Amino acid sequence: MIDRELIISKANRIHxxxxxxxxxRGADLAEFLASEDRQQLVxxxxxxxxxxxxxxxxxxxxxxxxxxxxxxNEMFYTLEEKGCLSHETTEKMVAAVGFRNLVVHEYGKIxxxxxxxxxxxxxxxxxxxxxxxxxxxxx
Length: 139
Known about the structure:
Order of helices and strands: HHHHHHH
Helix content: over 70%
CATH class: Mainly Alpha
Structural class: mainly alpha
CATH topology: Four Helix Bundle (Hemerythrin (Met), subunit A)
Number of helices: 7
Number of domains: 1
CATH superfamily: bsu32300-like
């Protein structure tokens, strides 16, 4: 059984991080590229927001007794398979996890123009994830 309060709490944290991203990214690309502090704060808040999404996914899978996923990406595919997420949202969450991994593990240099694009557009994918989860579980 899933804990609705836990999911709501995690969703609130996600919304908080998304607000921080919107506030810290600045108004335009030039302003963003001129500030390493902005870049780091945005990347950090994206990391935390995506992590909260993965926490929700893991909680649902465990709570529903759907087994143990072999990877974070597999969790989102499981949610899709069980009818909780659309294919489009699943693929966007897999991409978000990939970016989170880049930030967390420093696999390579982050393209700050791409970071600004993610902070400007792609963070809405996390809201879509929450919307689909809340709708499916009637939260």
